[in-house]
Amino acid sequence: MAADHLVVESDGPLLRVTINRLEKRNALSRAVLNEIATTFTEHAGNPQIKAVVLTGAGDKSFAAGGDLHDLANVRTEAEALAMSREARRSLTSVAQFPVPVIAALNGDALGGGAELAVACDFIVAASTSRIGFIQGKLNISTAWGGGIRLRQRIGMTQALRLLSRAELLGASDAERIGLVDCTAAPDQSLDACVHEFCHPILQQAPQVLRAFKALTTAHDKDTSVDVLKDIETRHFVSTWIHDDHWAVADEVLNARRSQ
Length: 259
Known about the structure:
Blueprint: E1 6-11, E2 14-19, H1 30-43, E3 51-56, E4 61-63, H2 68-71, H3 77-95, E5 101-105, E6 108-110, H4 112-119, E7 122-125, E8 130-132, H5 146-154, H6 156-165, E9 168-170, H7 171-176, E10 182-183, H8 190-202, H9 206-220, H10 225-240, H11 243-257
Parallel strand pairs: 2-3, 3-5, 4-6, 5-7, 6-8, 7-10
Antiparallel strand pairs: 1-2, 8-9
Helix pairs in contact: 1-3, 3-4, 4-5, 5-6, 9-10
């Protein structure tokens, strides 16, 4: 897929998606959001992908919120509703991607950029990066599912505090409250931190990762216990009978026999 505002690269089982609008601090225009939706939708069926790393170009900004110049002509109730729904569709394609998605905060994730970050399963941050749900400074609320996901991630009280105070957190403070999963050490590059974080994930079989993601995604939707049990059982059976499982099981059994 040709993308004007994204750089999409395959690194073995790892897919790298970079928002490439350095001159705009990687702001999320409607065109960028549409490209994100298309990219994640098109790669969702690739059985070889084990994880996705989503980041921004440069070292200053992951995504500096919605592109205000692009969104300035969204004025009516119908236009605002359409914009919100389309952007939510884009972030949902990230949240529901069938294997883990890691947001690599190379810089600030602000407003809509913070909403994009929490749509990912994990957030790994450079030591100098910051994250803030600062929509209130523009007298608006979250619009793309970010407020809901923030509450799910850090709880009601912490989420309300960040939203109502428009707090901008450094990476270490964000990690302290569970908003960020891993922060690079001051002398560690973001790439090295991401590699270290992703390494155990990439050791898993892709079908197993899909099983885990399907179960946790379904649980986020408050799906009934019976449906969750069915999802877990169905994926267990498919991974149990897979050749990858039996290859490892045979290695373990053969090792025990030789002892």
